[in-house]
Amino acid sequence: MKRVLFSALVVIAIGALATEAGASTAVPDLSGTWMLNEEESDDPREGIEELKKSRGQDRKSGRSGRFAQRVREKKVAKAKEAMAELEDRPRQFEIEQAADAVTFVYGDNRQQTFPTDGSSVKPKDDLMKKATAEWVDQSLVIRGETKRGKDIEQTYTLGPDGSQL
Fold it and tell me: Which of 6, 16, 114, 127 could form a disulfide with 133 if both were Cys (CB 3.0 to 4.6 A apart)?
């Protein structure tokens, strides 16, 4: 009798652990239409302000004269270009989610599909030369490299009530 009771408890415990483990590996469903919340999004203009504040850094690093001015001008030009690209970002997009991939559909019918197994894809936009997507805990993480060699990481996490991404 004790042996049967013990065996039943072991089976119940293993079942509970398997259910808990299965629940933790389930990914949230990000499918739907999403709107950009300007108030809670990063402001690309802040990057320009940081560059302006760093102008004094050139003197501290020993750069001076025309060379320092050219370096600043290049940095500011790159930052302005990046800011223009960010300001052109879509204000609304749709996510279509399958078991092994996530597709972003933008207002102008552009779309990009990312396999969620971490394999590399060539994004259709002109900004990145390669990107990967994978689930990390309950977040979709897309990592990319721009054509200029800069790393970009975007994280998409569903809010507690499911109404905010």
Answer: 114
